[in-house]
Amino acid sequence: MSRDGRRVHVIERDLTEPDRIVGELLQPGGYLKLVELGLEDCVEEIDAQRVLGYALFKEGKNTKLSYPLEKFHSDVSGRSFHNGRFIQRMREKAATLSNVKLEQGTVTSLLEENKTISGVQYKTKDGQEHTAYAPLTIVCDGCFSNLRRALCNPKVEVPSCFVGLVLENCQLPFANHGHVILADPSPILFYPISSTEVRCLVDVPGQKLPSIANGEMAKYLKTMVAPQIPPELHDAFMSAIDKGNIRTMPNRSMPADPHPTPGALLMGDAFNMRHPLTGGGMTVVLSDIVVLRDLLKPLCDLNDAASLSRYLESFYTLRKPVASTINTLAGALYKVFSASPDQARKEMRQACFDYLSLGGIFSTGPIALLSGLNPRPLSLVLHFFAVAIYGVGRLLLPFPSPQRLWIGARLIWSAAGIIFPIIKAEGVRQMFFPATVPAYYKAPSVKSDI
């Protein structure tokens, strides 16, 4: 926005380098958005690793799924890195711009005048209270947002937690690939975050975790998880547990449900979250930033509250195809990849693994969706039900039996029960027919440069 001639005041809660176990994988679709924003150099000089696809493991079998990058420049791929290093690079870049004021402070409340947000009240590091006024306030204060209630209807779910470890000086079975192990009870992830470190994220369903303090967590990881991971990583995994730096993070999911408010806009995890299994969060927010930047470019004066409100309502519609595809896929894959005692769900999980293993369009289609390279909701639904039909076909060949017919019917029913509630939460009309939503607003041609 500052490059478009606007003055920007950034109030950041903490300007020290963050240390998190999520936000470490940027899909190729997200990298392309960085390029559009002129920020691709933020993944340089931080020992970021190129990611070229995924490897999927199930019960001793594996399959490699590469991103369909043939049409793109050689620089285009996924990137994985230490989240804090990436954040600091972006902050450094913002601080070099003459019309950006970057300040450490904690926003305590939004200021409202005549039902319009006019700015914020915040506290600086030394405890002093300040106010800042602006025609547009962008609220992006993360998953723990204390400001979102004024701007949306937050329905936060916590289906599981990630337990994070860093494995040192070990080789992944497939170099430059993320690794997903379809374990019991739910998936385990491995991906490189530097030239010498591999991030491991163990998904634990529910919100109650074994205690780290009394050693229950280490015991759980050694007895329940370690036997399910690839042998090449076993020793490094055990060593990481013994080292003791075990971190946890609740996995939140929250569909975007804004109530448009003049003068303010929600973004990032404060606004919309999905299960982090597919690493889609940064791709969604970078796509949102590109949509917002392009939408507001023609508006020379943000003080025109009526025009600004119309444009901001359009943002919620224009972001939908990309955001809802990635959100729906994350929620659906998490459910499909998690173990279940239900025979129909077991068949669906096996069908998904076998379908992706077929190669060709059967793997490139879903991987293009997951990577943000082809964010088309209809394509997602078609592939999802193709997996279900493929699973039914496997059950009925060579000879269908009444029991197999019953399991097949339940498999289709189970697939519908997974994906349709997620689509409903995202908004059917916004996902598939965004142009029919009244708030959809096409910007007029730019009359003058800002």
UniProtKB/TrEMBL annotation:
<comment type="similarity">
    <text>Belongs to the squalene monooxygenase family.</text>
</comment>
<protein>
    <recommendedName>
        <fullName>Squalene monooxygenase</fullName>
        <ecNumber>1.14.14.17</ecNumber>
    </recommendedName>
</protein>
<dbReference type="GO" id="GO:0016020">
    <property type="term" value="C:membrane"/>
</dbReference>
<dbReference type="GO" id="GO:0004506">
    <property type="term" value="F:squalene monooxygenase activity"/>
</dbReference>
<keyword id="KW-0812">Transmembrane</keyword>
<keyword id="KW-1133">Transmembrane helix</keyword>
<dbReference type="InterPro" id="IPR013698">
    <property type="entry name" value="Squalene_epoxidase"/>
</dbReference>
<feature type="transmembrane region" description="Helical">
    <location>
        <begin position="380"/>
        <end position="399"/>
    </location>
</feature>
<dbReference type="Pfam" id="PF08491">
    <property type="entry name" value="SE"/>
</dbReference>
<dbReference type="GO" id="GO:0016126">
    <property type="term" value="P:sterol biosynthetic process"/>
</dbReference>
<dbReference type="InterPro" id="IPR040125">
    <property type="entry name" value="Squalene_monox"/>
</dbReference>
<dbReference type="GO" id="GO:0050660">
    <property type="term" value="F:flavin adenine dinucleotide binding"/>
</dbReference>
<comment type="function">
    <text>Catalyzes the stereospecific oxidation of squalene to (S)-2,3-epoxysqualene, and is considered to be a rate-limiting enzyme in steroid biosynthesis.</text>
</comment>
<feature type="transmembrane region" description="Helical">
    <location>
        <begin position="405"/>
        <end position="423"/>
    </location>
</feature>
<comment type="pathway">
    <text>Terpene metabolism; lanosterol biosynthesis; lanosterol from farnesyl diphosphate: step 2/3.</text>
</comment>
<keyword id="KW-0560">Oxidoreductase</keyword>
<dbReference type="InterPro" id="IPR036188">
    <property type="entry name" value="FAD/NAD-bd_sf"/>
</dbReference>
<feature type="domain" description="Squalene epoxidase">
    <location>
        <begin position="134"/>
        <end position="406"/>
    </location>
</feature>
<keyword id="KW-0472">Membrane</keyword>
<dbReference type="GO" id="GO:0005783">
    <property type="term" value="C:endoplasmic reticulum"/>
</dbReference>
<feature type="transmembrane region" description="Helical">
    <location>
        <begin position="355"/>
        <end position="373"/>
    </location>
</feature>
<keyword id="KW-0274">FAD</keyword>
<keyword id="KW-0285">Flavoprotein</keyword>
<dbReference type="GO" id="GO:0009725">
    <property type="term" value="P:response to hormone"/>
</dbReference>
